[in-house]
Specification:
This protein is an alpha+beta fold. The protein is 28% helix and 38% strand. Strands 1, 2, 3, 4, 5, 6, 7, 8, 9, 10, 11, 12 and 13 form a 13-stranded antiparallel beta sheet that branches.
């Protein structure tokens, strides 16, 4: 029975070993995906901050400014776009809502972001926009790819409507997780006014007619968990100015908003907990199962060879006596005389 058993073990070894690359290169891209209906929100704060008082047109120091960012998946739009794109697509309706210390809106900028559910590469289709303006994104936004690499990525900036490199600056430890730290500096750039202005009666068109322009710069920082590609912390050193025109006395410039924007601690804690659980699932598909299948295949192969080797050893036939040894001259045999 050893030879049939060794053949069965050999077949199992081949099958299990073949599962290892299939799990990593076939199952992983099809199973590790952003769900199309995902909803996520995060609260960031700048404390203290500088904010423009539109009544006096002067910058004022305020206790703080709050930014609420929401991402809501549009399942129906995803399914519709997938039919022509030929791949799984996620459509996020995003909103960045800025609130002053008095609870009143400072700005509200909506986005519609379309991307590949696994690779996070942008998908270009009708509806891709920032604050109602059509855009064509290049690079990533909000999330890095699964299995993030130690390299620079192109990152899309919603204010400038353009992509620029975000640089890998080293590996760090954050709340017990090994993370990659990325940094991007956007130089002073002329940008569009938000469609929703904080003062009734003032519109982007009316401000632009007076010759006033809006300028923006930021230093953007992300701490990214590399297995899931999810940022567990994000900060910005953000500045906005209004420059020139009749709106400003003397045609100079005034700070519209300035502050060091940071994620609120409770949202950091919940994000770290969520990413930690998702990290285990990704590691299972990329390391644990492929490595386990390789080890199991090697063990089955070794056992198969062992049984085959034992089956080839010569064995004595049952019930057969061993052959007698040939006689020697000293065994006491009497020879016939002459």
């Amino acid at each position: 029975m050893r030879r049939p058993a060794s053949l069965v073990l050999l077949a199992l070894a081949v099958f299990v070993t073949a599962l290892s690359p299939l799990m990593r290169w076939y199952a992983f891209p099809r199973l590790a995906k952003i769900p199309p209906g995902q909803y996520q929100d995060v609260v960031l704060e700048a404390r203290p901050a500088t904010l423009l008082n539109y009544g006096t047109m002067k910058a004022e120091r305020v206790p703080g400014v709050t930014i609420v960012q929401t991402l809501k998946g549009d399942v129906a739009a995803s399914e519709r776009i997938e039919q022509s794109a030929g791949r799984d697509v996620v459509v996020w309706n995003a909103l960045s809502y800025v609130v002053g210390p008095d609870g009143k809106m400072v700005s509200a900028i909506p986005e519609r972001y379309l991307f590949d559910a696994h690779s996070q590469e942008p998908v270009h289709a009708t509806g891709e926009m920032v604050d109602g303006d059509p855009v064509r994104r290049e690079g990533i936004e909000y999330k890095w790819p699964f299995l993030t690499e130690k390299r620079d990525y192109a990152y899309f900036d919603a204010q400038t409507r353009a992509s620029a490199p975000i640089h890998y600056r080293g590996t760090r430890t954050f709340h017990g997780l090994e993370v990659y730290y990325f940094e991007q500096t956007v130089p002073w750039t002329k940008v569009a006014f938000p469609k929703k202005m904080p003062v009734k009666g003032i519109t982007p068109e009316s401000v632009e007619k007076m010759g006033t322009t809006r300028w923006y710069t930021t230093k953007r920082m992300f701490w990214v968990e590399p297995v899931t590609g999810a940022p567990v912390n994000g900060q910005e050193i953000h500045r906005e100015e209004l420059r020139g025109g009749q709106l400003l006395s003397g045609g100079g410039k005034v700070t519209a908003f300035a502050g060091h924007v940071k994620m609120r601690d409770d949202y950091i804690d919940s994000t770290v907990a969520l990413v930690t659980s998702q990290r285990t699932l990704v590691l299972l598909l990329t390391r644990c199962l492929p490595g386990g299948f390789l080890l199991l295949g090697a063990a089955l192969l070794a056992l198969s060879l062992h049984l085959e080797a034992r089956g080839r050893r010569p064995r004595a036939v049952a019930g057969t006596a061993p052959a007698p040894a040939p006689p020697s001259s000293g065994d006491g045999v009497v020879s016939a005389g002459p």
